[in-house]
Amino acid sequence: MSPLSRRGLLGLGLTAGAALLAGCSTPGTASVNAEPAIPPATGPVKLTYWAWLKDLQKVCDIWNANNPQVQVEAIWIPSGNSGGYPKMYSALAAGTGPDLAQIEFRTIPEFILVNGLVDLARYGAHDYADRFDKTLWSQVSFVDGVYGIPQDSGPMATYFRPDLLQRVGAEAPKTWDEWADVAGELRKNQVYIDCFPLADPSWFTAIATQAGASWLKVDGDGWVINMTDDATMKTARFFDKAIDDDLVTTAFGQYSTPWFAAAAADQIASLTSASWGDALLEGVSGAEGKWRVASMPRWGSSGFGSSYIGGSTAAILANSQHPKEALDFAIWMQTSKEGIDALIKYCGIGWSPLPDYIGAQRQQPSEFFGGQSYNEEIFLPATKEQNPDWTWWPITQQSFNIIADQFRKKASGGTLVDAISASEANIIDAFRNKGLTIRKETS
Q1: What is the pLDDT of residues 12-38, one digit of tens each?
Q2: How far apart are CA 223 and CA 232, in angstroms?
Q3: Signal peptide: which range, if any (predicted)?
Q4: Distance (Å, rounded) from C-alpha 214 to C-alpha 206?
Q5: What is the DSSP string of 284-347?
Q6: 3-state secondary structure of 48
Q7: In the chain, N or C: fewer CB atoms in 10 Å?
């Protein structure tokens, strides 16, 4: 994934009239980034930080104890699409809001579209680029600007129950074809290998990304879309068959209340998910010592060894009057060992954004996973085996809603193949309705 060119940025619709194109007017924000850079304050500063991370204030307090001139107050908000993002957009429109906010990688382009974020390059962000994982840094970099500091990511692997797999003489599948074979054997024992969430296409998107898909790219002054490429269609056909053969359940999604009940009742044998899923697995009743971690299945000799789900940044909203101080805090929080360790301990963040430090806690064997040092053995290599060509686009969440609406038709006889094709057409319409240029890629 490479930073967008200047022409590519124009393709996002990131012009002076971006707020109008987005259909979400945010008066007062367009002028903030157009003004000269705000110099550091000469006196004490109080920063506010909106995020859905639990106990974030405990992390801020470590900074506060050593930086009396710059104090940070964490304010909990609902997760992005559960209310956090609308709250941020409302604050931007009112000319208010926090200095820092937790914003997912995939949502950064949507905030840029409404001029909602400070370009941190103006405050020296480029000086810290080499400290971060290159793939993550590219997801916050557009033209010469930087619009967030990577906070965590979600490299993928497979959590599995060795005892349930051993009942059918199997080990953790190394390929998706093996996965299907093992799934069929497990169904003879009334066990599912995993579930397929029809209402949340994030999981399917991650698996297609692993297969080599890259749905949207910038080309000149517009976007090019191709959701019916070979990698995506292969993924769709594979899971059409898996669902039709009852190899996976579509009755619930991963980490839902029914999923926890099924996992506790020994009815779920594995879970292909992100690194942050380890903490959620600990919520399964009686699960300690029963689960292990393996690399996620591969698409034979093609595709990539891993993929990613989720991941957030610490971004600075456009109405902040102290962007330099906010950047200093974000860099400390995301790059110091003290900050990373505190975020893991108190907030349970996903994978560290640093290529050379995963956190002291994650260097230790895990009692829950039977003494396995799975972070170093599995997830660290996974971060180096991800698709680097995936690019998020400015209406990602709307696109996911479109895909989810089409996926739900699978429950009444539809196919994922048809759902993807229909979604592509609807996403093209959605782009054009925003005033953005897009065309279908031709082979």
Answers
A1: 544 333 333 333 333 333 434 556 899
A2: 18
A3: 1-30
A4: 11
A5: STT-TTT-EEEPPPBBTTBS-S--EEEEEEEEEBTT-S-HHHHHHHHHHHHHSHHHHHHIIIII
A6: strand
A7: C
